[in-house]
Design brief:
Layout (H helix, E strand, L loop, with lengths): L2 E6 L2 H5 L3 E4 L3 E5 L4 E6 L5 E5 L3 H11 L6
Parallel strand pairs: 3-5
Antiparallel strand pairs: 1-4, 2-3, 4-5
C-alpha cells in the first residue's frame, strides 16, 4: 500500500451503488453509508472499504504496516 485515507464518498455517483463494485483499477466493498477507507496501492489501483468508523479502521491499518505507508 502507498497510502491509507479515511474518506467520505458518494456510493451511487462514484461507484454505482453499494456492494462489491468497480474494476481492477478502482474497487469498492461497501454495504451502507458514505464513509470508508481508501487504500492506494503501488500499481496505481485503489480499494475503498466502506465502514461506519473510517478513522479507526485507517488507524489500525496504518499501525499494522507503518513502513509501507506515507
Amino acid at each position: 500500500m502507498v497510502s491509507v485515507e479515511a474518506v467520505e464518498y458518494r456510493p451511487i455517483r462514484e461507484y454505482g451503488g453499494w456492494g462489491i463494485r468497480g474494476s481492477k483499477r478502482r474497487r469498492t466493498y461497501s454495504m451502507s453509508g458514505n464513509r470508508g477507507v481508501l487504500l492506494s496501492l503501488y500499481d496505481g489501483s485503489t480499494v475503498l472499504i466502506g465502514t461506519d468508523d473510517a478513522d479507526r479502521l485507517a488507524g489500525a491499518i496504518r499501525a499494522e504496516s507503518p513502513d509501507a505507508l506515507r
